[in-house]
Amino acid sequence: MCGIIARIGEGDAITKLVTGLENLEYRGYDSAGVAVQNGSGISVYKRSGQISELKDAIVGSVPKGNVGIGHTRWSTHGPPTDENAHPHTSETENVAVVHNGIIENYTELKERLESDGHEFTSDTDTEVIPHLFEYYLQDASSIEDAFRKTIDDLEGSYAVAALVDGVHAIYAARQGSPLILGLDNDEYYLASDVPAFLDHTDRVVYFEDGDIAVLEPNGVTMTDLEGNMVTRDVERIDWDPEDAGKGGYEHYMLKEINTQPNALTNTIEGRVEDSEVILEDFPEGTFEDVDDVQFVACGTSYHAALYGQQLLNQTGIRAQAFRASEYVDSATGSITENTLVIAVTQSGETADTLGALRGAKERGARTVTVTNVMGSTAAREADDALFIRAGPEIGVAATKTFSSQAVMLSLLSLRLAEDIETVNAPDDQAELLRELQKLPEHVQTVLDSTTAKRIASRYTGSEAFFFIGRGLNNAVAKEGALKFKEITYEHAEGFASGELKHGPLALVTPDTPVFALFNGDKDKKTLQNAEEAQARGAPIVSVAHADHPAEKISDAFLEIPDTHPMWSGLLANVQLQLVSYYAAKNLGRPIDKPRNLAKSVTVE
């Protein structure tokens, strides 16, 4: 959940370290720091709060040196204070370390080190790492040997980068937390995510669990915990550096909402031909033995999984979406050899989803991951991977990736139906695929004509916000509520339309607008539910195509193009994203960096 940046090469490191930290702000953080090896000691600067405060601390005493490490911290052990910020140093301050993850045995390690005379100055689990590294440096045959012994003592999840005073090298290791090596002509980078160094290089190597690396000016050596050499493929990232910038928009979120037509075009391209779904990695008959499908996901990806579940159930395929954090305890007992488990994760590094994926594999399930990041852990560990091709998403609140995930799962559901003899592809598949190819154009129409800004202003400051939808729109309603609460900090809830009267109706007042979603499927029932809320005084904001009956009873109306019910909810979703964005802007919220949240949740 935190961000690591490290760099070694010609020229001073500090500017590239700080820029790398700024490029990682979207991951979520509450403190930041850097450490630079300058040949006569390790200079460490760290501050709680924003990176701007760290920059202010550096002004006037800019640390010199061409090797360094940096970190943005999101608190797990100890509050966000200067003392708890990374990097952390050893007793003699000749070792500096940054770390993502959780060291589960830090209490035992700390007690052991304290009994040996080490004094600790923070509340973090991370601080045991530099002390432990220093301890092993006393008698180790080499610095690399001391680092390997340090890593071998750690239990839990970690990505670690370390400096040793007087040594022109960076020592790094990964276990359960992402770490990526960037290769430039005369310098090397380490980071938690590619955007940290995308301005400098698009050539990357993804660390795998158990990998240990030493970065030096003339090259990088990678080994396993036993010291055996390992080789990892060099891959090229096809993201343009400009894709990771704001591109003239006030916020990343607004940019990413507005780039959905392009993201969807990329997701669809080459995967639809006439009235058929073409997924090259899944030839005819791939899924003929599948009896049931289980989705595992978290947050927004879970809502995309609900979308996929509904689509599969409509075709007659048994499917269920599980929250990844609950999956191993509640669902793995239902796995058979004919179960297909689909892990949905934007980053491919979500800890709970990876845990669920591994639990499914251990029980013999076939696995597929739907992700945005090539080379991610989920993409490597699943049997197969489908990439949504949405490009980098920087805003913490996922927008374009939800749309692309839902489309990818829709295509996968149609592909499954082709292989499984007991079910049939939809009778109108040719029509729905034609409408899918129009989806980017329809999203652009929504963006060009939306009245979301006016509606957001009208209802900003309401007591609560409710979102209702039926079938596929149930998932969209839940996602709309999540987006609203994430960035406005206002109370919002999403319900299946028919559930509104089973409890939540008690919360409805004239100060609780209800957003009702219509897609042409059982709309009469949703309309009845909306009118029931309206009878209790709630204003109704309907999202539907022009001339829909809901328009006549609505207090406000968000129009979407008329399309196939399978895609209508994704157009409604764009309208709800815009309402959330403008409401948050009216309230002065930090839209791209909502409090307490991180882009990639890499700890359980």
Give an account of the 3D structure.
- This protein is an alpha/beta fold and 604 residues long.
- Helix content is 35%, strand content 22%.
- The chain is built from 18 helices and 26 strands.
- The strands form 5 sheets. Strands 3-2-4-1-10-9-11-14 form an 8-stranded antiparallel β-sheet, with helices on one face. A 6-stranded antiparallel β-sheet has the order 5-6-7-8-12-13. A 5-stranded parallel β-sheet has the order 18-17-19-20-21, with helices on both faces.
- Helix 17 (550-553) links the parallel strand 25 and strand 26.
- It is globular and about 75 Å long.
- The model has no long low-confidence stretch (mean pLDDT 90).
Low-confidence stretches: none
The class by helix and strand makeup works out as alpha/beta
Determine the fraction of residues in helical runs and give it as a percent range.
25-40%
Q: Figure out the total of helices.
A: 18
**Radius of gyration of CA atoms, rounded to a whole number:** 25 Å
Task: Look at the structure and give the mean pLDDT.
Answer: 90
Which shape, going by the Cα principal axes?
globular
Main β-sheet, spatial strand arrangement: 3-2-4-1-10-9-11-14
> Major sheet: size, sense and barrel closure?
8 strands, antiparallel
Strand count: 26
Task: Give the DSSP E fraction (strand runs of 2 or more residues).
Answer: 15-25%
- N- to C-terminal separation? 10 Å
